[in-house]
Amino acid sequence: MTSARDSVLVISAHAGDFVWRAGGAIALTTSRGGRAMVVCLSYGERGESARAWREGKNLQEIKAIRRAEAEAAADILGAEIRFLDAGDYPLLESQELVDQLVHVYRETEPTLVLTHTLVDPYNGDHPAAARMAIQARILAQAVGYEAPGAPLGAPPVFSFEPHQSEMSQFHPDVLLDITDVFEIKRKAMESLPAQQHMWSYYTDLATRRGVQVKRNAGPNLGISDGTKGEAYMRHYPHVTDRLN
Amino acid sequence: MTSARDSVLVISAHAGDFVWRAGGAIALTTSRGGRAMVVCLSYGERGESARAWREGKNLQEIKAIRRAEAEAAADILGAEIRFLDAGDYPLLESQELVDQLVHVYRETEPTLVLTHTLVDPYNGDHPAAARMAIQARILAQAVGYEAPGAPLGAPPVFSFEPHQSEMSQFHPDVLLDITDVFEIKRKAMESLPAQQHMWSYYTDLATRRGVQVKRNAGPNLGISDGTKGEAYMRHYPHVTDRLN
Amino acid sequence: MTSARDSVLVISAHAGDFVWRAGGAIALTTSRGGRAMVVCLSYGERGESARAWREGKNLQEIKAIRRAEAEAAADILGAEIRFLDAGDYPLLESQELVDQLVHVYRETEPTLVLTHTLVDPYNGDHPAAARMAIQARILAQAVGYEAPGAPLGAPPVFSFEPHQSEMSQFHPDVLLDITDVFEIKRKAMESLPAQQHMWSYYTDLATRRGVQVKRNAGPNLGISDGTKGEAYMRHYPHVTDRLN
Amino acid sequence: MTSARDSVLVISAHAGDFVWRAGGAIALTTSRGGRAMVVCLSYGERGESARAWREGKNLQEIKAIRRAEAEAAADILGAEIRFLDAGDYPLLESQELVDQLVHVYRETEPTLVLTHTLVDPYNGDHPAAARMAIQARILAQAVGYEAPGAPLGAPPVFSFEPHQSEMSQFHPDVLLDITDVFEIKRKAMESLPAQQHMWSYYTDLATRRGVQVKRNAGPNLGISDGTKGEAYMRHYPHVTDRLN
Amino acid sequence: MTSARDSVLVISAHAGDFVWRAGGAIALTTSRGGRAMVVCLSYGERGESARAWREGKNLQEIKAIRRAEAEAAADILGAEIRFLDAGDYPLLESQELVDQLVHVYRETEPTLVLTHTLVDPYNGDHPAAARMAIQARILAQAVGYEAPGAPLGAPPVFSFEPHQSEMSQFHPDVLLDITDVFEIKRKAMESLPAQQHMWSYYTDLATRRGVQVKRNAGPNLGISDGTKGEAYMRHYPHVTDRLN
Amino acid sequence: MTSARDSVLVISAHAGDFVWRAGGAIALTTSRGGRAMVVCLSYGERGESARAWREGKNLQEIKAIRRAEAEAAADILGAEIRFLDAGDYPLLESQELVDQLVHVYRETEPTLVLTHTLVDPYNGDHPAAARMAIQARILAQAVGYEAPGAPLGAPPVFSFEPHQSEMSQFHPDVLLDITDVFEIKRKAMESLPAQQHMWSYYTDLATRRGVQVKRNAGPNLGISDGTKGEAYMRHYPHVTDRLN
C-alpha cells in the first residue's frame, strides 16, 4: 500500500541507529517515491563513541564527526535528517523534547513511525526515546494540543530490532523483505567508517532475517536464496483489508 | 496481495464457527476470485446445540440440521465445506484426524489458514482444533510425510476471535476491514436460524472492531463511519515488502 | 460486605471517565448508603474535548463546560466530586499532585479505590493517573508521611475498563452485576450531552459484560436476562472469608 | 454468600493434597452448613509415599494406608471422599476418567471447585488433574453430554497453592481468612501421621498467608494478629454485586 | 569463582534491607576475602520506622537510630556502608542520585550487584532504587561518561527477594546456599532490635529456601538437612564455562 | 563444579540436534573427564531429511544414513549415543517412551540434562521431546516408580537454543563459553555432510553468542575476542553457593 504520499518518520536515540536497524525500511520507502525523516535525539556522543573518546577527541569534535557521518548515511538512503542534540547517556526525557517531536509529527504527517523497543536492559536511552516517540504521537493526535498543523492520523508504530532481542522482549511481528534495496543499505552502512565491524554484523543479520522471510512466507511469494530481511515489532494492531 | 490464486483454509471445531468468526475474511477472499475451503471437525452436535436437545431432537437429527445450515452459509460465502464428523464435547485429538487435515492441506494448498485460539477456558474443543490445525500444517510441509501432493509452503496462520477475548489471551494483531462484504456475512449469519441472537451480537462486534479499524488506521486509508471489522491474531511473523 | 461505612474513591485522569467506566460501581455504593468521592485530575480539556475545540471554544470555556457536566453526573450518581485541574495531554506526574492525593486518601479513608489501567497505548494520561493513585495510596499508609489524618488501611484497588481492553492488558478479574443501578448510570451518562454516541456504546458494553456475568456465575445466583455488568481488574489479592 | 446450599468439590491428584492445601476452605464450607466432596484421582501410592516404600511396604498396603488416612482427615473436615484409583506417577489423562468426573459434577452440583495449578514443573500429576477437572466442568455444562442429572451451572474454579508457588506461576488472587477453622484443619493434618514435618510447614504457611491477609485487607475488616490464611488462584472472573 | 578480588555492591532503598534480604550473600563474599559495599539511598525514616514515629521520635532521631543500627549490622557482615540520605516515601529518582551511584560503581568496581526488584506494588521506593541502580551501571560502562575511574565491566545484577514475591513478579532464578554463614546473618539481624519479629521471619524464610536448595540441587552437591538459602533473580544472562 | 563424576544426558527429538545445539556443552563435559549420553528419540527420518527424500532414498536407507552420521559426531564429541527409533513428524508421546527414558535416567544418573524448548511453533516434535524428558525426570525421582536403579537426584535441566528463538519463547538464561572446545564441535558438525550450510550457520551463531558472553561477563573473566558461546534456558532455579 506504499504510495508516493508515504512518509516514514524514524525517531532514534543516537545518530547511527537508523542506518543499522531501519536502513532497509527507509530505502524501500524512498525508492518508491515516499518521504523519510530521521530525527536523532542525540549524537550518541557519550555512549556510542567509545573509540573516539579513546583517541582523545573532545565532546564537540565527537558530535561533529557523528553528525557528518549520519548526514552522509541519510543522504545515501534518500532521507532528511534532524538532530535535537538532547544529550545521551543518559538521554533525559522532558516535556520540551516531547513537544519538539509533536511539532515534527504535525509537520511531516508520517504514515509510518519507526523507533526503539520499550525494553532494553543494556541501554536506557533506547526505551526513553521510544516512550517519547509514542507519547508525542498521542499528543499530536489531539485537536486541543497547541502546535502548528492539523491533528495527526494514527500512523502505525514499529520497534526496530535491538541488539539483544530476547533480552529486550523483542518479538519479530513483521519480517520485511529488503532484498531490493540491500545494496543501498550496505552503502549507507559503509559511510559510517568508525564502526566497520558493524557492516558485516548487520549484513549477516539481514541474511538471517532473510532466511526467516523464506521460512515464514506463504506459497504466494517468490522468495529467492539471497533474500535479505529486517525484523520489526508492531505497537498497534495492523489495519488491512487483506490477510495475505 | 490477494489474487485469484488465493486459497483460504478454515479449520473449525464445530459447524457455525466459520460464519460468526471468519465470515468476513472468507467473503473477502471469494469476492476477489480466491478459493475458500471450510473444514468442520464436528457438527457441534453436543456442545453447541442446546436448543435442539431441549426440543427433544436426537443425535442424528441434530447433526443433519447443523450440516444443512452450515452448507447454506458456506454457499452464501462462496466457500466449499467438508465435515469430518469427529465428535464434539469433547473433540478428541487423534493422529488419524491430523492425518486427514494433512491431506486437506496438500490438496488445497492454502495461502492462508484460519482457526481457533490455542487458549479457551470455556471450550476445550477450540484449542484442540487449533492444535491439530497447526500440527497438520507442520507435517504437510515435510517432504518425508506420506500424503498425496507436494510439500506445503508456509501459509500464515491466524486465530479468529473467541467469545471471551481477554480470557482466551486473544490479542488483536490484525483488524480486517470487512465493510465491503459485510452484507454477505450478514446473509450467511441469517442462514443459521437457530441462533438468531447471534446475528445482532456479531453485527455489533463487527461495528466495534470497525471503530478500532478507524482508531488504528494511518492517514493513508479512507475509512468511513460504517466500517465493519474482524479481529485476528497471528501465529507467525508477517512477511511483507511494505510496512504500510 | 458493603455497609453504610463504605467509601469508594475514584481517581480519574479526565472528567467523564468515572461515569462511563465506573458509574455502576459508584451507584451501587451510594444506593446502599456508602460514600463516593470522585477526583478528576484534569477536565480532559485538550485530549477529550475534540468537538468543543472544533466548535471554536477556548480553553476556559471548555474547562467550564466539562466541569458542569461532570458535576451533574456526579450528582445523579450520589457522589462528591473534586477537580485538581492539573492539565491533560499530557497529564504530568508530580510529587505535588501525589501529595494532594495523599491528603484525599487520609481525609476520605476509602474502603475501595477505582482508577485507570497501568497500561494504555492510546492514552498516556490514563497510566499516569493510575501510577499516582497507587503511589499516593502507599504513601498514605505510612505513619511517617506528613499529612493530616491517620495512616490509611489497605483499601483494595481496581482498574476500570479501558477503551481497548486487549491492547491495555486488561484482564476482567471481576464482573460486577450493576443491573439494579443501571438506570441511574444511564441517566448520569445522559447528563454528558456532548458525547451522545457514548450512551449507546456503554449501554451495549454493560449488556455484553452482563452476558459474561451470567456465563461465569455459579448456580447460586439468580441472574436474569437483562443483567448489566462492569468489568474490573484487581491490583492486590482479594481478602475474604468466603470463596463464593 | 455461602449458604446451606453450598457445595464445594475438591479434585486432587493424590490423597492428602486436599488436607494441606484446601483444608481451610473445606472446613469453612462445612462449618457453615455446606457440603464438601473430595475426589482423589489416585492414592499417591508411588509418588508421594517415599517413606512407606523405604519401609518395604507393597503397593496394596500403601494404598490402604493412604486411603485410611485420607478418610480420617475428610471425616474431621466434615467432607465426603471418593477414590478413583487411577494410578499416579504418572497420573494418565483419559476420557474415561474425565467422564467419571462429569458424573460427579452432575451429581454434586458444586457451587465451588478447587483443584491443582495448571503448571507445576515438579509434579506432572498436578497439572493433569487440573486439566481433567476443568475439561469435565465444561462437559458437564453441555445439555448434549450424556450423563445423569441436569446440565451444570458455571461454578467458579480455584487452584489451591502448590509447593513452589513462583515456579508454578501461582498468583495469589484470593487470600482466604481461615482463622475460625484453623484448629479443625490442624487436627485433620495431624491425622496424617506419616508426614509429620508437614504439620508445621503448613501451619507456618497459614501464618504467612495470614500476615498477607492483614497486609491486603481494607479498613473494613477487623483482622487479629493470629490470622491464618490460604491462598487461591482464580480461573474465571469473579462475579459479584459488591466490589468490597 | 569468588576470589579475594570479589566486590559486591548492594544498592538498597532503605537502611536494613541489605541485612534481611542479602545478608547471606554479603557474608559469603566477605568470609571468602571479598569486599562488600552497601549503599543505602535513604534511612527508611518515613516508610519503615512506624514504631519510632509512634513512640514520638522526630525525623533526625529516627535517622540517627537507623543509621547506627545499619552500621552495626554492616560491621558484623564485614561490609562497608554509605548513606546517601535521599529521603524515602517517596524516594524520588533524580539524575544527581544516579550520578552519585555512577561514582560508587567506578570507585568500587563491583563484580556483583544486588538490588531490589523492578516491580513491587506495595512499595514504590524499591523499584525506584532498582531503576537507578541499573541506569547507573549502564552509564558507568560508558567511556564518555564523566566520572573518575575506568569504565565499568559488566557485573551481573540480581534482585534480592521482596516481601510478597508472587505479587512482585519475583522468580527465584538462583537459590544461594548460605548455610555456612547463616549464623553471621542471624547476628546481623539481631543488631536491628526494633524489628525483632523479623528475626524469626527471615530465619524461617532461609529454612524454606534451604528446602528448595535441596529440592533443586543435582546429585553432585552434598546438601544437609539444616541448609539455609536466599533466593535471587537475575537481570542478565549468566556467563559461565560450566553448566553445573 | 564439573568433575570426573559429571554426567550429561542429552534428550533430543532427532539425530543431529545434539551436535548443532549442544555440541559445545557436551565437549566441555567430556574434555574434563565427564560422561555424556545422547538419546535420539528418532532419526529425524521424515522431517529433517528433505534432501535424502528428494534424492529418492527410502525410509530404511535414510534412517541408516542419519544413524551413521550421528554416531560419527557423537564419537568426535566423546559421547555415547542411543537411538529409540520412535518415529518423527510426528514424534508421538507415549508412556512406553517415557518409561524408556526413566530407565536411562536411572542408569546414567545424570548431573545435567539438556533437551529442546517446551515451545516451538515450527516443529511439534521438539516440545514433545522436551515434555517427555521432563516427565521422565520427575518419575525417575520417585522411590515408588518401578525401574532398576536408585531414585534420581534432581539434576538441572536446560533447553538448548531453537532455530527461531524469539518465536519459541527462548530466553538466554545462561551463556556458555565454549571457546576451548569449539574446534571439536566444528569437527563434529563437519561429520554431518548432508547439512553443510549448517556448519557456517552454527559457527556464526557461536560467534554471536560469544559476543554476548563478553557483553555480559563481569570484570572477573578474561574473555578474548575469539570467544564462542552457546545459549541455554534453565527450567529450575540455579542452586549454588556463589553468585559470581
Structural descriptors:
homohexamer; 244 residues; alpha/beta; Rossmann fold; seven-stranded mixed β-sheet; 7 helices; 8 strands; 15% strand
Q: How many angstroms separate the termini of chain A?
A: 13 Å
Describe the oligomeric state of these chains in a short phrase.
Answer: homohexamer
Specify the CATH architecture of chain A.
3-Layer(aba) Sandwich
Find the count of extended strands of chain A (DSSP E, 2+ residues). Answer: 8
CATH topology of chain A: Rossmann fold
Shape of chain A: globular
Q: How are helices and strands ordered from N to C of chain A?
A: EHEHHEHEHEEHHEE
Q: What level of helicity do the residues of chain A show?
A: 40-55%
Q: Whole-number average pLDDT of chain A?
A: 94
Please summarize the sheet with the most strands of chain A.
Answer: 7 strands, mixed
Question: How would you characterize this protein structure?
Answer:
The structure is a homohexamer of 244-residue chains. With 244 residues, chain A is of the alpha/beta class. The first copy, chain A, has one domain (7-234): LmbE-like (Rossmann fold, 3-Layer(aba) Sandwich). Helices cover 41% and strands 15% of the residues of chain A. Chain A has 7 helices and 8 strands, in the order βαβααβαβαββααββ. The first copy, chain A, has helices at 17-31, 50-54, 59-77, 95-108, 125-141, 182-190, 196-216, and strands at residues 7-12, 35-40, 80-83, 112-115, 157-160, 174-177, 229-234, 238-240. Chain A has a 7-stranded mixed beta sheet with strand order 3-2-1-4-5-7-6, sandwiched between helices. In chain A, β1, α1 (17-31) and β2 form a beta-alpha-beta unit. In chain A, α1 runs antiparallel to α6 and α4 crosses α5 (125-141). The longest helix of chain A has 21 residues, at 196-216. Chain A is globular, with a radius of gyration of 17 Å. Chains in contact: A-B, A-C, A-E, A-F, B-C, B-D, B-F, C-D, C-E, D-E, D-F, E-F. Chains C and D meet through β6, α7, β7 and β8 of C and β6, α7, β7 and β8 of D.
